[in-house]
């Protein structure tokens, strides 16, 4: 196509300008009208740039297909137009096809090298996609085109910074600073940030001395005095200029006596090594900062013996007198040390005795009487204490005493609920948390707790309803929770669905969580331009680095871990999908079986009505939402994302072609961001072993081994691997043999056989139940005739075990029920009754009569399969954080 | 009995959110159980219903209403009480002073009165201290508790010479 056929005559080119202006002012209707004026003339009906602009506008009003059509036609007609390419890029970008968009922008720039708008758009995408070399080039172009703008310089320096080229970054910043007269009027926040950014660059490059000198030279201009002092203190400390550093950290403690880090650095300055010196330091500091909590608390960590007793005695009494519900939580860390826990117990029991006899903590105290609430707080403390020590019976005694004493206090009911949870009775826990909730229905915290506890017992509808008391009115609670990125809720809900056999629904929730992380990454776009313009470079760099690792966050790890296990389960049990397709209908069926026919019909009719109503309401809400979305085109990116909002469909998710492939998608981020967590590599092994990827299996074992060679699941996997190889070896190509032969000895303690490995594993971990369970699996697998021995190993409940906890015993119970060792009903019965004696409140071990209210766990609840053969891991319920 | 010097004591409103706390309170303090209707009505009482906080915990409460008897307006105390463990620390006094304040600010209350089980010496002593007198007895006032009889305790607000009694404080 000849270029001049694309050139518009004067009149039309005037109209074209109006099209562009209408677009920029978001007057889309007018824009389309003007475009039509040009295109309806047969001479210009294929004018590329007009078509492109028309497409761009169509995209903004949601007509995506027409938009693409126009833009493509426009581009075809005018391949040398930067406008056509730019528009094509914008369209791709609005569809989040960033790589495509980058290509389009680059093409656009070929035809208009110095177009600032395109350069900016390109640079944004490059930093978003972390194409740092490209980003650097583009920022250079921008600087050339717009050397007078500060953001040009800053952006260029930042590009080098992100490439770890500190020298160039500093040079650019320095050049720019030279062109700037120092500010006349202070404080000048932006100039101050610029200085501190340069200091950060110097520090990251390792030039601490230069950083300090620079900081001092420009001290006058720094307005963030806290940052100034912290940076200076750190550099001095690093330079071993202890006396100067000491002064600074002392000042900082003055500013904020509750910042633990300042105290630690102060200790470093004073080179404190002995506890006596440390005690002396805190004694002096306490006099200087009598209100500082840190001063009183830190010594509790290092003091021992009578000194500890004195200190904790002083520490405990004021809050027990005043009534500080969080007192015990703050001391929880001390319980790592059994002796300290013992001292605390003795002391607080003594308070109890004294309060009851003379209404004082110590009879010889000169203080006046304690208030009637003192005994309440003492009991409350003791309940938490015994709960932590695993003595749930005493914990409950104390909490009941305090509830009798003051039945109006919500915290008491919350604690009672928590104790039941720890003791293994989740039903009871949910009841008491709901009781607490009902006592203050304006308290969001207890509402959240209650929702969580209801979900733990699979009371999904009740939980959603309860959550709905705090979500936005007129919107379904689940929608609001998703909009608010309320991930703890979605995770708990996913697990509840999973336990109830609603796998599709569970998958939806996990995918929603995953989507939040996409959104968080997407949200960076808001910062790229803003931060450079506003000079908030230090936080900006922080954001970029945080986003780089965002999927390393615990919330992502937990949900990715779960969903991988769920996909593995679905892979292993393809029938599971169908079995529970309509679990709700089934439940209704069951529930009604005891009613008469007419009653049943009545209820059914009601249910149908309610269902129809709910559907209607949902449809209405959907419409409403659409209405809300439509007129909002002020921000084309927002509008686009709203439209793109993925609605996950449980059926579709459940019926994926290849669950392992899905699992692998969730594994990838873990492998790059959670390498230190052994569970990442164990999951990887579980996936790869099902795909028979022998080298990847080996790689996972090696990585897991370097995290913790003694991990019980890893032990099973190593044996599994060796056994698998024995069978498959002949099939494998030679180079694979070489690699395997290279690595196996390290994993098997110099080439030991599975039998030998297992024996030494047992010898080494004879007092750890978790390890014994793994060893028993291996033993039985190697020698099915050793079944009795294997059972004896796992049902060991001796006092000498270091991990005889409710959690581990429950796992043993699950393992025995799984059928891995064949039918174990007799052993299970006796094991349950032994465990019941140890954990009298745990519903898992209640004798059948009592167990009427026991939580029914669906046959699909994960973790039932033994880790060895099926290589499944533990259930989410089994490893929930308590 | 010596008061605890640094105890924090204050009054708070009864709301739909904390109503359950009042229920729990009355369930252990008062010998008779109140209906759900009683509690929904409490929400309409405004200032006439209050909770008492001791060191931030609810330990007491009061609910009154205004009765009309001919051309007389009487303030009737339906419930007033404090958790056993927190008695003799001034909570009852704080609650009663609140009632007194309402009556005085109203300016048109003839008397304050209430019913007390005849055996409830503790309450009788308490109210006498504030100038209440036993003005009558109702036989079989209570249905399910023993003894079933109640005294009527009353305190005149408009004395004959027209001057009103001043607020009392029993703290020593
Ligand atoms: C009556 C009641 C409200 C008093 O509450 P309280 O918080 O203990 O009252 P106070 O601390 O303010 O006491 C004020 C004064 O009353 C007197 N008093 C209260 N209880 C008393 C008792 N058991 N014996 C002797 N005097 C008593 C004292 O003079 C006291 O002053 P002091 O403690 O300085 O000596 C409380 O006992 C209660 O809740 N009882 C059960 C509910 C009830 O019966 N209510 C009445 C029917 S509505």
From TrEMBL, chain A:
What are the Basic residues biased-composition ranges?
Answer: 601-612
The alphabetized UniProt keywords are: Repeat, TPR repeat
- One matching Pfam family is TPR_8
What residue intervals traverse the membrane? none
Q: Does the keyword Repeat apply?
A: yes
Q: Which PROSITE patterns match?
A: TPR (PS50005)
The reply to whether Repeat figures as a keyword in the UniProt entry is yes
SUPFAM superfamilies per the record? TPR-like
Q: Which domain of life is it from?
A: Eukaryota
According to the UniProt record, where is the region Disordered?
596-644, 849-882
Q: Output the Gene Ontology cellular-component terms.
A: NatA complex
Each TPR repeat occupies one of these ranges, namely 82-115
Checking Gene3D superfamilies in the record gives: 1.25.40.1010, 1.25.40.1040
* UniProt feature, compositional bias: Basic and acidic residues: 613-644
Which protein is depicted? N-alpha-acetyltransferase 15, NatA auxiliary subunit
Tell me which species this is from: Amphimedon queenslandica (Sponge)
UniProtKB/TrEMBL annotation, chain B:
Give yes or no: UniProt keyword Zinc-finger.
no
Which GO biological process annotations does it have? mitotic sister chromatid cohesion
Which PANTHER family does the UniProt entry name for this protein? N-ALPHA-ACETYLTRANSFERASE (PTHR42919), N-ALPHA-ACETYLTRANSFERASE 50 (PTHR42919:SF8)
Q: Source organism's superkingdom?
A: Eukaryota
Q: Which GO terms describe its molecular function?
A: protein N-terminal-methionine acetyltransferase activity
Q: What is its EC number?
A: 2.3.1.258
- Domain N-acetyltransferase stretches: 9-158
Supply the enzyme class, top level: transferase
Return the Pfam families for the record.
Answer: Acetyltransf_1 (PF00583)
Keywords of the record, alphabetical order, are: Acyltransferase, Cytoplasm, Transferase
Q: Which gene encodes it?
A: 100634178
- Origin species, per record, is Amphimedon queenslandica
Catalyses which reaction(s): N-terminal L-methionyl-L-valyl-[protein] + acetyl-CoA = N-terminal N(alpha)-acetyl-L-methionyl-L-valyl-[protein] + CoA + H(+); N-terminal L-methionyl-L-phenylalanyl-[protein] + acetyl-CoA = N-terminal N(alpha)-acetyl-L-methionyl-L-phenylalanyl-[protein] + CoA + H(+); N-terminal L-methionyl-L-leucyl-[protein] + acetyl-CoA = N-terminal N(alpha)-acetyl-L-methionyl-L-leucyl-[protein] + CoA + H(+); N-terminal L-methionyl-L-lysyl-[protein] + acetyl-CoA = N-terminal N(alpha)-acetyl-L-methionyl-L-lysyl-[protein] + CoA + H(+)
Question: What Gene Ontology cellular component terms go with this record?
Answer: NatA complex
What compartments host this protein?
A: Cytoplasm
Q: What is its main location?
A: cytoplasm
For this entry, the protein name equals: N-terminal methionine N(alpha)-acetyltransferase NatE
């Amino acid at each position: 196509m000849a270029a001049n056929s694309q050139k518009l005559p004067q009149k039309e080119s005037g109209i074209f300008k109006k099209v562009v202006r209408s677009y920029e002012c978001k007057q889309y209707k007018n824009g389309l009208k003007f475009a039509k004026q040009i295109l309806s003339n047969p001479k210009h009906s294929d004018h590329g740039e007009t078509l492109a602009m028309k497409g761009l506008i169509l995209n903004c009003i949601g007509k995506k297909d027409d938009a693409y059509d126009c833009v493509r036609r426009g581009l075809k007609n005018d391949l040398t137009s930067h406008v056509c390419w730019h528009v094509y890029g914008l369209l791709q970008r609005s569809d989040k096809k960033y790589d495509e968009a980058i290509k389009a922008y680059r093409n656009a720039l070929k035809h208009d090298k110095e177009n600032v708008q395109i350069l900016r758009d390109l640079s944004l995408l490059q930093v978003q996609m972390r194409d740092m070399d490209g980003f650097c080039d583009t920022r250079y172009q921008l600087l050339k085109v717009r050397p007078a703008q500060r953001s040009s310089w800053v952006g260029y320096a930042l590009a080098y910074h992100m490439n770890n080229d500190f020298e160039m970054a500093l040079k650019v910043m320095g050049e720019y600073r030279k062109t700037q007269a120092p500010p006349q009027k202070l404080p000048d926040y932006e100039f101050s940030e610029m200085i501190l950014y340069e200091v950060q660059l110097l520090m990251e490059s390792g030039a601490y001395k230069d950083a300090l000198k620079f900081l001092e030279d420009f001290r006058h201009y720094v307005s963030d005095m806290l940052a100034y002092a912290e940076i200076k203190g750190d550099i001095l400390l690093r330079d071993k200029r202890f006396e100067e550093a000491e002064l600074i950290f002392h000042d900082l403690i003055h500013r904020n006596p509750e910042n633990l880090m300042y105290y630690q650095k102060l200790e470093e300055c004073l080179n404190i090594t002995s506890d006596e010196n440390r005690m002396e330091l805190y004694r002096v500091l306490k006099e200087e900062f009598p209100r500082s909590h840190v001063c009183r608390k830190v010594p509790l960590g290092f003091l021992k013996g009578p000194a500890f007793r004195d200190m904790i005695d002083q520490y405990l009494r004021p809050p027990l007198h005043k009534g500080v519900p969080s007192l015990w939580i703050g001391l929880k860390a001390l319980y790592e040390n059994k002796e300290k826990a013992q001292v605390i117990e003795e002391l607080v029991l003594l308070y109890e005795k004294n309060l009851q006899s003379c209404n004082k903590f110590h009879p010889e105290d000169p203080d006046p009487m304690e208030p009637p609430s003192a005994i309440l707080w003492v009991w409350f403390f003791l309940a938490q204490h015994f709960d932590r020590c695993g003595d749930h019976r005493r914990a409950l005694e104390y909490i009941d005493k305090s509830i009798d004493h003051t039945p109006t206090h919500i915290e008491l009911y919350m604690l009672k609920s928590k104790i039941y949870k720890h003791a293994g009775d989740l039903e009871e826990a949910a009841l008491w948390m709901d009781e607490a909730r009902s006592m203050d229905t304006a308290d969001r915290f207890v509402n959240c707790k209650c929702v969580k506890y209801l979900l733990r017992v699979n009371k999904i509808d009740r939980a959603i309803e309860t959550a709905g008391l705090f979500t936005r009115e007129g919107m379904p609670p689940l929608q609001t929770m998703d909009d608010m990125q309320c991930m703890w809720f979605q995770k708990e809900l996913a697990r509840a669905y999973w336990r109830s056999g609603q796998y599709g629904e569970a998958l939806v929730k996990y995918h929603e969580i995953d989507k939040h992380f996409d959104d968080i990454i997407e949200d960076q776009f808001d910062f790229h331009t803003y931060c450079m313009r506003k000079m908030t470079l230090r936080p900006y760099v922080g954001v970029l680095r945080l986003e780089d690792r965002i999927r390393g966050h615990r919330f992502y790890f937990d949900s990715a871990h779960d969903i991988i296990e769920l996909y593995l389960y679905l892979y292993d049990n393809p029938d599971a999908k169908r079995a529970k397709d309509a679990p709700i209908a089934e439940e209704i069926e069951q529930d009604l079986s005891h009613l008469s026919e007419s009653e049943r019909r009545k209820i059914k009719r009601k249910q149908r009505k309610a269902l129809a109503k709910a559907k209607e309401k949902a449809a209405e809400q959907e419409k409403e939402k659409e209405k809300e979305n439509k007129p909002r085109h002020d921000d084309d990116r927002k509008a686009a994302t709203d439209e793109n909002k993925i609605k996950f469909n449980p059926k579709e998710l459940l019926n994926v072609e290849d669950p392992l492939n899905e699992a692998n998608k969730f594994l990838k981020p873990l492998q790059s961001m959670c390498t230190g967590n052994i569970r990442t590599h164990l999951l990887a092994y579980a996936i790869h072993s099902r795909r028979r990827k022998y080298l990847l299996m080996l790689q996972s074992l090696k990585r897991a081994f370097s995290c913790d060679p003694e991990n019980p699941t890893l032990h099973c996997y190593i044996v599994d691997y060796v056994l698998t190889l024995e069978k498959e070896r002949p099939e494998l190509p030679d180079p694979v043999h070489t690699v395997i032969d290279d690595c196996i000895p390290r994993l098997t303690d110099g080439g030991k056989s599975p039998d030998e490995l297992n024996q030494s594993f047992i010898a080494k971990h004879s007092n750890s139940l978790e390890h014994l369970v793994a060893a028993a699996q291996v033993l039985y697998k190697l020698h099915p005739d050793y079944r009795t021995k294997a059972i004896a190993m796992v049902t060991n409940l001796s006092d000498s075990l270091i991990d005889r906890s409710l959690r581990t015993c429950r796992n043993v119970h699950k393992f025995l029920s799984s059928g891995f060792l064949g039918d174990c009903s007799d052993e299970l019965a006796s094991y349950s009754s032994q465990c019941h004696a140890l954990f009298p409140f745990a519903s898992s071990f209640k004798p059948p009569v009592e167990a009427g209210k026991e939580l029914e766990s669906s046959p699909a609840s994960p973790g039932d399969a033994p880790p060895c053969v099926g290589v499944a891991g533990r259930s989410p319920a089994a490893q929930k954080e308590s | 009995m010596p008061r605890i010097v640094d105890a924090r004591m204050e009054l708070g409103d009864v709301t739909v959110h904390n109503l359950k706390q009042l229920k729990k309170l009355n369930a252990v303090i008062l010998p008779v159980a109140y209906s759900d209707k009683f509690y929904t009505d409490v929400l309409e009482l405004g200032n006439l219903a209050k909770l008492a906080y001791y060191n931030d915990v609810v330990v007491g409460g009061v609910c009154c209403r205004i009765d009309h008897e001919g051309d007389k307006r009487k303030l009737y105390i339906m419930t007033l009480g404090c958790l056993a463990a927190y008695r003799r620390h001034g909570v009852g006094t704080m609650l009663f002073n609140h009632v007194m304040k309402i009556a005085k600010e109203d300016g048109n209350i003839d008397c304050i009165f209430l019913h007390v089980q005849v055996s409830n010496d503790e309450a009788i002593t308490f109210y006498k201290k504030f100038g209440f007198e036993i003005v009558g007895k109702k036989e079989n006032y209570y249905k399910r508790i023993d003894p079933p009889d109640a005294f009527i305790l009353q305190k005149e607000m408009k004395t004959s010479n027209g001057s009103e009694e001043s607020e009392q404080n029993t703290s020593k």
